[in-house]
Each structure stands twice: as structure tokens, then as C-alpha cells.
Amino acid sequence: MEPWDSYKVKPAGFIPSNTINNACREFTVVTHTSHVESALGIINAREIKPGLVYDKSILNTERILVSWLSPNHWHPGYRYGNIQFEFDFFKISQGKNFYWVEVIDYSPHACRILITDKSHDGQLQRYDPLKGNGPWWYDERSNKHFFNGDFCLEFMIEAPVELSKLTSFSFVDHHGGMCSAHKNNIGACDQLGLSASAGGALFFARAIATGVDLSGLATFLVKPDGKAGIYLQAAYEHLLYKAYRPPPGFQFSGSLDEWSSDILLTHARSFIAAYAYGRQDDAKHYHGLFKSEYVFRDAIAAVVAESLKINWRRLFEDTI
Ligand SMILES: [Zn+2]
């Protein structure tokens, strides 16, 4: 008997072609999902910095520092935030040592495996993914990784995870009633229940308000033809139409229409900063300074593009 036996992947003998066997899901990538402020910290540091384990883990009295990655997808919404960093699992796991850490009785149960360059023999039990008798199975014959999706598989990486290894960057829905960062005070999470597009808008707004350089994300957010990818497009449309809701019958009537004017961009940044930190009255004030919706749209596009250090003119051509 091993402690991971009851969480093992279960390849099924026969599965109808239109169904997924959740107990044996192939995965090639793992993700780290976080709230906006942590995500901006990761981008500034260019890596996910490992931290101490605080929950009821057996490692919470150890000095082992870990970064968290997982192959799981969460419906309806992630408890960890709206911002998702994705990495190639083959590169993350290659040549490493694997140790079984524990199962935590969250719902669903969280199975934790440590991935490390170090030896923890004598402290933790080694986990061999080749055996296929636990929640993570590496099938050497097909060169494929599988996990049991009925549980939450959490990889604890005993190292920083560098953003140079990033394979994708996206926005996801935050769960409406659960938050891993504010377990004891759920109301303190300002992203609780935010959709992927709202989380994306908040991400851009706070990055712009605090001057975070997002140029390293452009390859993941912009298509090769120079147009916005779906996540960037959705965040932009949220900034345009939902960041501030004008009263019924509102008409743009401000004087800001000179496109080359620096003041136009200054006001667009001010509008975004007001939204970023919940100052609705300021957002209303700055919104009202624009002469037309077209000017407002272009100015917001230019400021978003500026944060990514790319050209704005083609970026949001498909905006309705
Ligand atoms: Zn939260």
C-alpha cells in the first residue's frame, strides 16, 4: 500500500469516442493562476518566486520554499485568481527528483508532489510516475503524461519558475464563492466572481496605473498579424464598455479629440487608473472629457498597446 494508491489514474478499457475519461487525462502543460497584484509581482520579477507553505501541509514547519503549478482546470472558476501563466510540463519535470508530500482534504482532495533538484530522501517518500499507481502517470511508451482529474494535482516546485519558460498567458474566471488567498475573509477579495475579461481588464488597468512593463507578454496576447488575441480583445472591450457605465442617454461631449495630443493619452491613463482602484467618480470625470466614443476607444487602445510596447493601430480593428 502506498499513500497515493487511492488517487491513481484509471485508464479505461473502453470509452465512447465523445467522452473524456476524467480519471485519466493527458496533460502537456501546467499552470500557475494568481490574483492581479501577485501576477504583476511575478512579471516584475520575471519569475514565480517560491514561498513558504502556509496551510496545513506537512511542509509548513519546514524551510522548503515552493512555487505551485497544476494541470487542473477549474469550473466554474478558479479559487486562485484571474491571471494564468502556463508552462511546458516536460521542461518543468525533466531530470528532476519527485517526492510524495501529502493529500490535503480539500474538496476535491489535493494530491501534492514535490519536484526538485535536491534530495529529500529520509524526509519524504520518492514518487515514481512511471509506475502509474498514483495521481500522476508518465507513460514512457507513448511519452505522455496523465493525471487523475477527479482530484486536484498540485506540483510543488522547489525553485523559481522563470517566465522565460512561459508557453502561454491568459485570463480565467475567478470562482464566485471561494478564494485561496482570502480563505478567512472572502469579502476581502476584489476579484471574487470576476469573469476572465473583467480580470484581464483589471490586470491591464493596474499594470498601466503602476507602470509595469508588459512587453514580454505581447507574443502571447497579440496574433502574428498584429491584431489582438481573444484575451487581450476581451480585456480591452471590458475597459471600453464595462469599466465605467455611463448613465442612460449619456453622450460624449468633451473637448478631447486631438489625436496627437499627449493630454489625450494622459486622460486615458487617468481613466484607467481610476478604474484600477475603484474610483468611480474620477473614472466618470475622465470619461466625460472625450469628444466621441471613437476618440475614447482609440485613446484606450493606444494606452493598452503602450503597456505592451506595440503598435496600437491594427490591434483592435475587429472591435464591434
Ligand atoms: Zn480571490
Give a concise summary.
This protein has 320 residues and is α+β, with helices and mostly antiparallel strands. The chain is built from eight helices and 13 strands.
Overview of the structural elements:
- By secondary structure, this protein is of the alpha+beta class.
- It folds into two domains: 5-171, no CATH class; 213-308, no CATH class.
- Helices cover 27% and strands 18% of the residues.
- Helix 6 (262-276) packs across helix 8 (293-308).
- The mean pLDDT is 93.
- Zinc ion is lined by residues 35, 81, 174, 179, 181-182, 189, 191-192.
Q: What is the number of independent domains? A: 2
The share of residues in helices is 25-40%
Could you spell the SSE succession in H and E letters?
EEHEEEHEEEEEEEEHHHHHH
Distinct small molecules bound, one entry per kind: zinc ion
- The strand order across the widest sheet is 4-11-7-6-8
Give me the Rg, rounded.
22 Å
Q: How many DSSP helices? A: 8
Cα distance spanning the termini:
59 Å
Low-confidence stretches: none
Number of extended strands:
13
| Sheet/helix structural class | alpha+beta
